[in-house]
Design a protein that fits this description.
The protein contains 8 helices and 38 strands. An 8-stranded parallel barrel has the order 22-23-24-25-26-27-28-31, surrounded by 4 helices. A hairpin with a 2-residue loop joins strand 17 and strand 18.
């Protein structure tokens, strides 16, 4: 996200009296909204009496506040939580000194079908529930003591429109922004680093300036851009003349000596500050954080970052935050990323939509390789009321806005223009529209950014995939089909491979199914035979032996990732459990089982598998629990690293020492249950590394 110079919070109404004229001012607009859930009336006119409405602060998701409902038209795929139509209203004032300035309102995301009014005037509508957008309030603003009224209608009534829990409402941040008449345009800078060496980096900026004719003197103006390092030290600058004209894009190149490179381990950030000035008058100041790095997706050797080979171990995540719903909370998102980072994860796929811009800020700061995804469908539907209805009129604008908003983030390494798109396949009439659409989407992105590869996430990996056959993509995304990873080059010669979605294993944290007869054991266990618990819900064994038929267990995916040089990396489905899509289980199941971490942020056992393989953190994890019945035979599993072997003790008696043979990712004992204490001890060169008790 491009950050602006001042950020203030409000409790009741807005007042801009402290800001100097022509100074860019961005103000938190989340506080003190009125809200009502009502699909039968219109509330866009200023005279509406909203005194009896609920007062709340944004971000807000009204669906998470409703009861789970087996009759909800969203289905349990949508979390069994209803949508509806909600209205938001807010009043504010603008000081008279701001006449002649520009006033904008920014929405980071509204789900979905939103329309916005200011003082009864419609500003426009956006059907996409995930895209960020802004409106110009200037022509309709009242100044001084007169109050202005913003009204927002959010229509999430028609269901189903999502394959997972979407939430409802103004569920991301809102900002009010004041600029001078001459200013940097919305998302108006673009930073690239086309040349990077140990000695220097060339930083190229393109800044789009809005400047109506007649506002400058005949001299015009200058744009002065300074780059500061993370410590605030000036490390480079450039000054360019700006001639008169409505909109100008100004190129600048700045050399930085001995650059600090952005990486997943040291995500170093710089800041560019651009100032538009005419003689001694400053029209605008605009800040753009960025990072310096270079990377490559090699068709034979996989991914490298700053010249060093790196396997991407990523996860896919939906946008809900468990019990918080979809209302964005920066600390909750940060906590998720902290847990994933500690696991060894270094990548995030924003499945299957543009994320909150603050999530990308966090990924910039914490070091994640992001696939920034745009669409879950194109013109062909997956649900009756999904985005396919808006595709024809909106896909160009929505994609352009996503690229403009996100292209300065160093964490964004790939654009994905679609997930498991229906146009992959030829229909009975031989439809090949997927090829045409694919080429169009790639051309839209390349007009705005040529610094990153573009992909789609394909669950059809065969030779008749229309999207791949379009020829528009140098980097191919596979969803699952791990048997096709190693021979990828034989099928798609000259292309690079990233596994955009893998695994789809299922576990319930802390629940273990025992199979006490070796003659009837299934490994892996069938995914459609869950344990139905006494309360009527469903649980899945936390042993790593249950996966969807299109996927694989966690261990199978890890082995294939590590043995296949051609695979740049994989994004596991999923990092966290999420509301909705409780595949394949019926009501009362209403959340997924796919996560490595559960809805509340507690790791499942396989979390420690990844930590033992992909980090240097000393790991010794022992499971399951040790509360069974007499006569039970129990598989006891341990994940470990930084050790040669693990010895298991039951009530002080050794049950034997195990070590991982080549290709093993765990050790296992099979024991008859005896009440007491299990203790595992890991050793390296005969010395104890760690010990754990259950």
């Amino acid at each position: 996200m491009i950050r602006n110079t001042i950020f203030l919070c409000f409790v009741l109404s807005l007042s801009l009296v402290t800001a100097a004229q022509n100074e860019r001012t961005s103000l938190n607009f989340n506080k003190g909204w009125k809200f009502i859930l009502d699909s039968t009336h219109q509330y866009n006119e200023p005279a509406v009496n909203d005194a009896g409405w609920r007062t709340l602060d944004l971000p807000h998701d009204w669906s998470i506040e409703l009861p789970f409902d087996s009759a909800s038209p969203t289905g349990n795929g949508g979390g069994a939580l209803r949508g509806g139509t909600g209205w938001y209203r807010k009043t504010f004032t603008i000081p008279p000194a701001y006449k002649g300035e520009n006033i904008f309102i920014h929405f980071d995301g509204v789900y979905q079908n939103s329309e916005v009014w200011i003082n009864g005037h419609s500003l426009g509508a956006r059907p996409n529930g995930y895209i960020s957008f802004r409106y110009d309030l200037t022509p309709y603003i009242k100044y001084g003591a007169e109050k202005n009224m913003i009204a927002v209608k959010v229509d999430n009534q028609k269901q189903p429109n999502s394959r997972w829990y979407s939430g409802s409402g103004i569920y991301r941040d809102v900002r009010l922004e004041k600029t001078g008449v001459v200013h940097v345009d919305n998302w108006g800078t673009f930073v690239t680093t086309p040349t990077v060496t140990k000695e220097y980096a060339l930083v190229t900026l393109r800044t789009t300036i809005v400047q109506p004719f007649g506002h400058f003197t005949d001299y015009g103006a200058t744009i002065n851009t300074k780059i500061y390092d993370a410590a605030g030290k000036l490390v480079g600058q450039s000054s360019m003349h700006v001639a008169m004209g409505d909109i100008r894009t100004i190129p600048q190149t700045i050399k930085i000596n001995k650059p600090q490179l952005w990486s997943v381990d040291q995500p170093y950030l710089y800041k560019a500050v651009s100032e538009i000035k005419s003689k001694n008058f400053v029209f605008d100041t605009y800040e753009t954080p960025f990072g310096i790095r270079y990377f490559n997706f090699d068709k034979d050797k996989g991914f490298s970052l700053n010249g060093k080979p790196l396997k991407i171990l990523g996860v896919c995540n939906h946008h809900d935050l468990g019990a918080l719903g979809t209302a964005f909370n920066i600390r909750a998102a940060e906590r998720q990323l902290e847990l994933l980072k500690a696991m060894g994860c270094n990548g995030i796929r924003t499945s299957h939509n543009p994320p909150a811009p603050q999530l990308l800020d966090l990924c910039d700061k914490m070091g994640f390789i992001v696939i920034d995804e745009a669409f879950d469908m194109w013109a062909k539907s997956k649900n009756k009321y999904d985005y396919h209805l808006a595709w024809k009129d909106w896909h160009v604008k929505d994609l352009q806005d996503q690229i403009l908003r996100d292209r300065n983030h160093p964490s964004v390494f790939m654009w994905s223009v679609g997930n498991e798109i229906g146009e992959q396949y030829k229909d009975k009439n031989g439809d090949t529209s997927g090829r045409v659409i694919a080429r169009e989407l790639v051309s839209i992105i390349k007009a705005l950014d040529t610094s990153r590869p573009i992909i789609t996430a394909n669950n059809e990996t065969g030779i008749n995939n229309n999207i791949i056959l379009s020829g528009a993509f140098e980097l191919i995304g596979y969803n699952y089909h791990h048997e096709d990873w190693a021979p990828f080059q034989q099928r798609w010669p000259g292309k690079g491979l990233v596994v955009t979605e893998s695994t789809s294993a299922l576990q319930t944290r802390g629940h273990y199914d025992l199979v006490n007869s070796d003659t009837i054991r299934r490994w892996p266990k069938r995914w459609d035979l869950p344990f139905k618990n006494p309360t009527g819900g469903y649980t899945v064994s936390a042993y790593d032996h249950v996966s969807a038929p299109w996927g694989s267990t966690h261990e199978e995916s890890i082995r294939e990732l590590l043995r296949s040089d051609v695979v740049s990396g994989m994004y596991i489905w999923t990092g966290f459990d999420y509301i909705g899509e409780p595949t394949p289980y019926p009501w009362p199941a209403r959340s997924s089982y796919f996560g490595i971490i559960d809805l509340a942020g507690f790791p499942k056992d396989v979390y420690y598998l990844y930590q033992s393989v992909f980090t240097n953190t000393p790991v010794l994890h022992l499971y399951p629990h040790w509360n069974w019945q007499s006569g039970d035979t129990v598989d006891v599993v341990s994940y470990y690293n930084n050790a040669d072997e693990v010895e298991l003790f039951l009530n002080g008696k050794s049950m034997g020492t195990m070590n991982k043979k080549e290709g093993d990712l765990h050790v296992k004992w099979r024991l008859p249950f005896t009440a007491g204490t299990l203790k595992a001890v890991s050793k390296k060169s005969g010395k104890i590394v760690l010990s754990k008790e259950v």
